[in-house]
């Protein structure tokens, strides 16, 4: 698995995922909030399967 998530994308995924999970835990948005596990996980492991399918890479290239 080559990293394809980085920078602001990674931070946005972690924040958005944690926010959705928090809202689900408090009962504000119901069970649909658990979908936040996906962006949280992809942000933490720096890999998004959908990005690899479409050839997207937000990581800085190493020289």
Automatic annotation (TrEMBL):
InterPro entries: YgaP-like_TM (IPR021309). Residues 1-61 form the Inner membrane protein YgaP-like transmembrane domain. It comes from the Bacteria. Keywords: Membrane, Transmembrane, Transmembrane helix. The chain crosses the membrane at residues 12-35, 41-59. It holds the Pfam family YgaP-like_TM. This is DUF2892 domain-containing protein. It comes from Halomonas alkalicola. The lineage of its organism: Bacteria, Pseudomonadati, Pseudomonadota, Gammaproteobacteria, Oceanospirillales.
């Amino acid at each position: 698995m080559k990293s394809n998530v980085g920078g602001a994308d990674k931070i946005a995924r972690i924040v958005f995922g944690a926010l959705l999970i928090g809202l689900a835990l408090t009962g504000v948005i119901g069970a649909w909030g658990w979908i936040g596990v996906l962006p949280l996980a992809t942000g933490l492991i720096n890999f998004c399967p959908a990005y690899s399918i479409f050839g997207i890479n937000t990581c800085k290239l190493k020289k």
